[in-house]
């Protein structure tokens, strides 16, 4: 492997994980704020906000999988440039999905804390954002074939 492949491998994981960290951080902060709002109003604090806060973490797994797919493709003869491009742009797209999922989950925490309603709806829209990362992973794998 040359230098370009290593950069692609590193970016696939690092950019995905960066987005997961940003997304989980945003959602976790909103969960804490939501619980505070509930406590201040004498309402029960929904534990399900933990799931909202953790939702962006799966994109780190997708980044790890993408990194492994790139490594396998390199072994099979994929060009350095393709490995670099898929790693950088695939990792960035997965990371962006994680970040936006965290922002969506943050809004879900706020809404749930205020109304106590809509949990299933919130999970549906969080899942829609997750789908962007899954599509990126699958399409990147296909590009490496």
What does this structure look like?
The protein has about 140 residues and is mostly helical. It has a single domain (about 5-145), classed as Up-down Bundle (Four Helix Bundle (Hemerythrin (Met), subunit A)), CATH 1.20.120. Helices cover about 85% and strands about 0% of the residues. The protein is built from five helices and no strands. The protein has helices at about 5-40, 50-55, 60-75, 80-115, 120-145. α3 packs antiparallel against α4 (about 80-115), α3 packs parallel to α5 and α4 (about 80-115) runs antiparallel to α5 (about 120-145). The relative contact order is 0.21.
Overview in brief:
It is built from 5 helices and no strands. The model has no long low-confidence stretch (mean pLDDT 96).
Write the layout of secondary structure elements.
Layout: H1 3-40, H2 49-54, H3 58-75, H4 80-115, H5 119-144
Helix pairs in contact: 1-3, 1-4, 3-4, 3-5, 4-5
CATH-defined fold name: Four Helix Bundle (Hemerythrin (Met), subunit A)
Q: Determine Rg (CA atoms, Å).
A: 18 Å
Number of strands: 0
Beta-strand percentage? under 5%
For this structure, what is the CATH homologous superfamily? lithium bound rotor ring of v- atpase
Write down the overall mean pLDDT. Answer: 96
Q: How many domains in all?
A: 1
The low-confidence runs, each spanning 5 or more residues with pLDDT under 50, are none
**How far from one another are the termini?**
18 Å
What gross morphology would you assign? Answer: elongated
Number of helices: 5
Percent of residues in helices comes to: over 70%
Keywords:
hydrolase; transmembrane; transmembrane helix; 145 residues; ATPase_proteolipid_c-like_dom; mainly alpha; 0% strand; 5 helices; Four Helix Bundle (Hemerythrin (Met), subunit A); hydrolase activity
